[in-house]
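dumping this here so i dont lose it
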């Protein structure tokens, strides 16, 4: 299994997919719906409707690999205010997402005039 830091791109497919789909079905979504290169050094991330599972698809030199992650007792956070079909994230954000943390809400930048 490759490290998530070994990939150039980490791509989230925003819409939930039917989790009966495996490598072939998910590959069709990436190639035909998203118009992305399956052989690029990218991780492609999918979720089910309930957001209890993630599937991560990638191609290496010898073929496709598919990872599955299931959270127990909670759901994966998922982008709500983003309309793009695909969303690019950083590897550090994927680590947080896989831990079940919400990567979509960030702290606001604090501005101050003086220090106490």
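and the seq i came up w/
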């Amino acid at each position: 299994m490759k490290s998530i830091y070994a990939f150039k791109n980490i791509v989230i497919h925003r819409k939930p997919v039917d989790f009966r789909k495996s490598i072939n079905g998910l590959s069709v979504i990436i190639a035909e719906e998203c118009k992305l290169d399956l052989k690029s050094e990218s991780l492609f991330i999918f979720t089910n409707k309930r957001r209890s599972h993630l599937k991560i698809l990638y191609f290496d030199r010898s073929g496709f690999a598919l990872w599955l992650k299931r959270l127990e007792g909670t759901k994966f956070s998922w982008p709500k205010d983003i309309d793009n079909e695909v969303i690019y994230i950083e590897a550090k954000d994927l680590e947080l997402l896989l831990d079940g943390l919400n990567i979509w809400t960030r702290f606001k930048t604090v501005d101050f005039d003086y220090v106490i």
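The CA atoms of residues 30 and 36 lie 6 Å apart.
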